[in-house]
Amino acid sequence: MDQLRAMEIFVEVARQRSFSAAARRLGMSRALVSKHVLQLEAKLNARLLHRSTREVSLTDAGQAYLEPCAAAVRQAQEAAQAVAQGGDELTGTLRIQAPSSFGVTWLADALARFSLPHPRLAPLLHVDDALLDPIGHGFDLTIRVGGIPDSRALAIRPLAPCHAVLCAAPSYLAQHGTPAEPEDLHAHRCLHFSHLTDGTAWHFEREGERRTVSVAAGFTSNNGLVLQHAALQGLGIVYSTTFLAWRELQAGTLVPVLPDWQLPLNHLSALYPASGRPSPKVRALIDFLVAEYQPVPPWDLLLQTRQAPSA
C-alpha cells in the first residue's frame, strides 16, 4: 500500500463526504478509492469513516486523524513541488477562500497581478460568504473580514483594517429623513448583513460613549454587494464597509449616515494552517497582500481622494 496516497484519498473523501465525489475529483474509480481507505484503516487498526447510503461522516478516530493527516499530505506535496521547481518560481495549485464581496471587488485583481510572474502557479479562488473551516475544506489560505475562529490549528496574519460605514442613497434620506442619533434607526428601513457577529444589534461609539440599537431588518442578505445594490435603489440604510462602498461614497450616490458615530472596527486577515511553516507560495501571496493593503488600504486612500477642481 502507498500510505501517502491512501492518506491523500482519505482526506479528499472526508472533505467531500462522499466516495463518489472524491473519486471524481481524484480521477479514480469509486472502488479503488474505497480500497485505499480500507487499507489505511487496516494499517491504523481504526475505523475512520461511517458509511451510509446517503453520506460519509468521520468517526471520532477519523476526526482526530484528519487534521494531522491533511498536514502531512500538504507538506509532502509542498516538498515535492520545492524539489521540482528548484528555485524561486512558484508552482502548483494555490487554494484560496475569500468573502464574495471582497473577492470580487479587490482580491481577484490583486491575485491576477500576483500570478503574472508565475506562469506555473494555478490559483483556485473560492468566493463564499459562509465561514468555512479552512483546514476541513482544504484551503491553503483563507481571507476573513472579522469572524476569526478560536483555533490553535490556524495561524493568523493581519492584512488591513476594515472600517464599517452606514450609508444610504440621497433619495432615501430625502423621503424619510436623516437619523441624528443611533436610536433614530428604529424609524428607518435597515439593510442588514446576516453574518454580523451580534445579529441585528448595531453598536456605536463616540468619544467614549457607547450605544447599541437592535434594528428591524427590512432587507437581509449574506452578501454585501446585494445590500449595496438595494441601498442604491433607495431601499434603506445599509451597514457596509469602506472597501465596498468607497466609490459610491466618493461619487455621492451613497452618503454616510451618523458619520460622527464609529462602528466596530474589524480586520482583514489571512488564515493558514499552523502546522509546519507556510509554503513558499502562501508566504509570497501573504507578503504581496500586506504590501498592497498596508499601512493604509487602497480603498480608504481612494475614499479620501477628492476630485481636483476643474480649471
TrEMBL record:
InterPro entries: LysR-type_TF_proteobact-type, LysR_HTH_N, LysR_subst-bd, WH-like_DNA-bd_sf, WH_DNA-bd_sf
Keyword Phosphoprotein appears in the UniProt entry: no
Top-level taxon of the source organism: Bacteria
UniProt-listed Pfam families: HTH_1 (PF00126), LysR_substrate (PF03466)
Key words, A-Z: DNA-binding, Transcription, Transcription regulation
PROSITE patterns linked to this entry: HTH_LYSR
UniProt GO MF annotations: DNA binding; DNA-binding transcription factor activity
Ranges of residues in domain HTH lysR-type: 1-59
The keyword Transcription regulation is annotated on this UniProt entry: yes
Record-stated family: Belongs to the LysR transcriptional regulatory family.
Protein name in UniProt: DNA-binding transcriptional LysR family regulator
Source organism per UniProt: Pseudoduganella lurida
